[in-house]
Amino acid sequence: MFADDAPAKDIKTPRINSEIWHNGQFIKWDDARVHVMSHVLHYGSSVFEGIRCYNTKRGPAIFRLREHMRRLMNSAKIYRMDHEFTLDQLCNAAVGLVGRGGLEQCYLRPIIFRSLDEAHPAFGVNPFPNPLVCYIGAWDWGKYLGDEAIEKGVDVCVSSWNRLSPNSMPAMAKSGANYMNSQLIKMEAIKNGYSEGIALDDRGFVSEGSGENIFLVHEGRVITPPLSSSILPGITRDSVIQICRELDIPVAETGLQRAALYVADELFFTGTAAEVTPIRSVDKIKIGEGTRGEITARIQKAYFEITKGERPAPVESWLTYVNETKVSVPPSNGHHGDSAFAPTTNATEAKINESFLTVGTE
Ligand SMILES: Cc1ncc(COP(=O)(O)O)c(C=O)c1O
After folding, report:
1. Candidates 178, 212, 299, 356: which one to mutate for ligand 1, based on the most atoms within 8 Å of Cβ?
2. H runs (alpha helix) in the chain
């Protein structure tokens, strides 16, 4: 049954950026606090992103920054969070944070959430009276599923928990509340001795891992579940689809039965944190040769070369080189009225990205 000695921690956080970006200014890590009665703590009202910044020969480079910030704005729009930040301001803030922090590589965590107006406190479910705040933190994060996993692959299970159903909690929004579902999937997997769990959607089709999209390789074709399988529209997933096209590997979005996982030639996860991680077994059934497959290795190699700036991205540049990107940086803890980081009075410029509307073919 459940092992009591299952690891409580699956990550290491060796180095943390000493500053946090908050609503237009840089504040000290220790000053980034919220009130315990904030709406977000009680009702899960946050949307966030996870972005990697890679160490390249040209200094730190943020991977697909605009796409991540656009998804953040889309997530906020879905939850009627009418904040005043623009895409450019959020991108500039991320570049400024990395530039000031001195970490040559890191993981960036922008978050927008509903906090507490202490002068006019509101405690109900109705989120509208609660002010919106935005923070961006950063830390150096190693391989999410372990260093060995990238080469040898991970052992995973199919979760007894289903992924969210589209008309209860939209999986296409990266909201904090969705990660209660992810935590159920992850905890069950860890307690049973697996690295990760794969959730099925509410119809029983393969959806995704607790924090990764999934790909299957069958007879030379690469297949991934469509957005209609309640997945997060992963930016790594999109990168891998584009890499497959460039490598002339046929790729399709198709609904997958659970059993298709067991008979796949190769399986792998994709995600900002997990990058491209092979899966070597599912429910103790060996996948292919039980190690990283040939097509997975080709895709992984291309992905790592692109993120290190050693290979051009398939379409346009996917890297924002921090040391080569000019942004005006406000003084620490200073006023931000005129700065490029200040919120503007423009309404949010988020538009639902067309690819977010695609449900894919099944
Ligand atoms: C539930 C879930 N699915 C998929 C992904 C992969 O998305 P991305 O490649 O944009 O990081 C993530 C990670 O953010 C996730 O949490």
Report:
1. 212
2. 39-43, 65-78, 87-101, 149-152, 178-191, 235-246, 258-262, 294-307, 354-357
Question: Which residues are marked as active site?
Answer: 174
Q: How far is the CA of 212 from the centre of ligand 1 (A)?
A: 5
DSSP-derived 3-state class of residue 199: strand
Q: From residue 324, give the alpha-carbon distance in Å to each of 81, 139, 163, 350, 358.
A: 32, 21, 41, 26, 35
Given a contact cutoff of 8 angstroms between Cβ atoms, the answer to whether 99 and 108 are in contact is no
For 316-356, what is each residue's pLDDT tens digit?
889 999 999 988 655 444 333 333 333 332 323 333 333 44
Instruction: Identify the residue whose C-alpha is closest to ligand 1 atom 15.
Output: 211
The CA distance from 106 to 140, in Å, is 4
Cβ–ligand 1 distance for 198 under 6 Å, the answer no
Cβ–ligand 1 contact at 208 (below 6 Å): yes
Q: 234 CB less than 6 Å from ligand 1?
A: yes
Residue 106's closest CA among 174, 176, 56?
56
Helices (H) and strands (E) in the chain, counts: 9, 18
Q: Which atom of ligand 1 is nearest to the CA of 272?
A: 11
Tens digit of pLDDT for each residue in 225-283?
999 999 999 999 999 999 999 999 999 999 999 999 999 999 999 999 999 999 999 99
Q: What is the rounded CA–CA span in Å between residue 357 and residue 197?
A: 26
pLDDT digits (tens, 9 = 90+) for 105-134: 999 999 999 999 999 999 999 999 999 999
